[in-house]
Specification:
Structural class: alpha+beta
Number of helices: 7
Shape: elongated
Distance between the termini: 69 Å
Helix content: 55-70%
Number of strands: 7
Radius of gyration: 31 Å
Strand order of the largest sheet: 3-4-5-7-6
Oligomer: single chain
Largest sheet: 5 strands, mixed
Order of helices and strands: EEHHHHEHEEHHEE
Amino acid sequence: MTQKITEKKYGARSRLTRTDEIGNLSRSLDIMAEQLGHFETQEKAFMADLAKQTLQLKQLNEYLVYFEESERKSIASKLHGTVAQTLAMGVSKIKTHINGCDIGRHDDLIQVKTFLEHSVKEIRTIIYELAPPILDDFDIDVAIEFLVEEINEKNGTGFDFTNRIGGPVPLNRAVKLTFYRAIKTIITNILEYADAPDAELELYGHEDFLCIRVQTRGLRLGLKQATTAPGDKAGHQNFSERMERLGGSILLKHFADRGSKITLKAPVLTQVGQENPE
């Protein structure tokens, strides 16, 4: 039997050159080892390329959020600088003529002034909703608490908000904007579809995520129904998809009493707040 041991190493095994079945098996194993090494190199290159593409996609999604926010602020600024101020000047002009006009025109001017004042108020509300300044000045927990209080005051609802965050919330700017608008959309849909709108909101930290639980009573929403802006038939403003593209998620669970629990998770830059055992 002929046997020769070569000096070249393949892993922990020397290559054997034989003419029998063991030699054939050894050569087959060598070929498999080389192929596996090649596949491993390919896999590493593929994973590196995938990680690069994932990062690029995340950066693109962040850019889209920033671009949309910039457009919102631009529209809000134009509304404030043109329409709102023009209407306010009109109200001021009418006020100067009300007292000096005859009785027949007095009531008409009062009515016109009321219409204009209502229009100014509505435009200022739209300006605020387009670009809430509170998002620039405060952390997300303060912004959400203010949002809930504002909605309760405006609609006569009793949404209950509990904040379990005990310190700063280190969110990426794009994530912060999307998280806030997702919550606002969910609350708006509860107002839209519930006969008697009611919900509990709880904000807390869990590992590397900022979470908020929105639980309804007597209202069963679907995920798309809950996370898409009312009137958006094409679903361009679906925040479930937006949160996923930014590394977060929105999960929905139904209960026997027809209630729903919607849980939003947003990635944070460092661990935050207190954990909420689920």
